[in-house]
Amino acid sequence: MSFAAIINLNHPASYVHWGFFQMSIPNLVVIGLMIVVFAAAIALPFPGSKRKRGGS
Amino acid sequence: MKRRRLSNAELNEAASHYDGPYKPYDLVKELFVAICVVATLALLFTVFFSSPDEKPSTVAQWSRDLPVDFLNTAVSELDGTSGTATYGPPYNHNGEGQIVWFIHLQSWLGVSHPINTAQDYVYSPLATVPGDPLLRAAVAEYRESPAKVQATWTNAYLAALVKATVVGNGSVLIPKGNYGPLPTMMNELLTLAQSGAFDGDLLTSDQFYQTDYTKSLLFMADGGELAARAQAQHLLGEQWGMMNETGSYPGQVWLWLYTFWYQIQPFSTSDNADVLVMMIMGVLSVALILVPFIPGVRDIPRWIPIYRYIWRDHYRELRSVAAGPSGDGSGGSGGPPPADPVSPPPAAAAST
Amino acid sequence: MSAGAGAKKSWTVRLREAGVAAMPPERLLPDGQPTYMSSWIYVFGVLTIAALVVIIGSGTILGLKGPAWWHYTGIGHFFNSIHLWAVEMFFFFMVIHLWGKFFMAAWRGGRSRVWMSGTITFLVSIAAAFTGYVSQQNFDSQWISTQAKDGLNSTGIGAFFNVLNFGQMYTYHVLLLPVVVIALVSAHILLVRRHGIVPPLPLPELGAQGLAGAGAPSGAGAAEPAP
Description:
The complex is a heterotrimer of chains A (56), B (352) and C (227). Chain A is of the alpha+beta class and 56 residues long. Chain A has one helix at residues 25-43, and strands at residues 15-18, 21-24. Helices cover 34% and strands 14% of the residues of chain A. Chain A has a two-stranded antiparallel sheet with strand order 1-2. The model of chain A is unreliable at 51-56 (pLDDT under 50). Chain C is globular, with a radius of gyration of 23 Å. Chains B and C meet through helix 1, strand 1, helix 2, helix 5 and helix 11 of B and strand 1, helix 3, helix 5, helix 6 and helix 7 of C.
């Protein structure tokens, strides 16, 4: 029984080259996501933060 | 009153206690929700992308795919010029290893996994071939010849391999020359490898059960099979390979700084690159651990005030308190929130 | 129940009382938190722990069936995938947690050990992940181990930590390093519970009144005028 993924990633990745810097697109996506998620975590309001009294 | 920048000691004193209000919060439920979220995400990633599993290379495959490269490697193991043969500790004493000034860490820790490349990769496997008197005679002739004669044969053979041709059944043809007993030995070694017996020999020569692949992996790493596959997958050192994964999967992004140093001078061309990079990363790792004690670094959060956004609600309330009670609400809280039903956790009996 | 007053305390009683004094139950598992904790950045610690739970769960199943199982069954490959993506998420959340704590200067107020235990956990986790990568028994582990050996040999570590030795690496990966990681994470969490979550940095323009807690709204806090 084989387990096939919906999206097949078993092919060589694309790379970004800039001088001596090179990074795979998947890795860049992960790094980009981390920055976006970090910014979003700080920017997005947390539930209950603006209520007059504390409560869950 | 002039705004005064608080010292590190004052900051620490201020942060050592909190007398403000608390709100109810369910930590256990938060953990449960977090586990559900992460498990769901893992499941989604698995269903969509699965995970890579490139089959490992074997000596059999290598000798069939790249027979000339295999023979090159085998001869270099025999005459002691291969990467493993000249590595030094922990495999042998034939090299001094990497050094930084007077620091010879590689040598100081000694030879803990001895490898004799001629014995382990040529003589021992050939000794397993049963009942071949010609082969035994060839091996004996080689072993009993003076080093100078052996070198003549191996150098000539290596030069001939440059002009070798591979025929259909995987064997290698070289021009005529003075190679002594080498062709007999090497052709037998190639046959052994292509049959798969060499893989087994390398693993079980010492004992039946084996979990240590050192000999097999060092032998293959001396050749070009692994490197050829790695280059195709962007896994070589100069391709930032440490961070990459096979296929189009994300790799080990957290290793970016480890691999970065190998891309720039002087590390990219240094024989001692590994120990230099490991030392730099060792120092930086210790520095990361000791950030609270490093002036300047520990002040960066105040210089890059992301904290103003993290705690903006708290600061808004402080400002409204500082401005005095006002009739209108601002931002939803017109004044200090009422005292909370949740009491702060009890202080620990021992002082910090 | 301890012995009567005046009786010499047993080691058991002393240990219990010291433990309860250092960490009363309400401090170990509080049901409230400071009101300044109103940002999503605060959930990345627990997300990291959640990822570790999924790693250990999937890893346990992989270990129960042995290291070769995932190569030749679909269900084995499934759990290997869960394990791999949980590892990616573990580092993803941990690094964001680290960024957040750095920009909060969360080591203030006697919390340097919290920071230190966290960063040591990060570094040990890298080693734990590494031993996993070289235990895969596929081409990836062949390549990673034959490359990494040079870095480790150059420092002498290779003399007793042989990345080409599958038996050794697998043992480090499924037992030795997870024990260390779990111990470090536990110490980290206990230290957080002991010291509490770090209060906000004081705003320079609010002067002394900007110090969190001092004059912070708590009923009738006396507010100093802003400079």
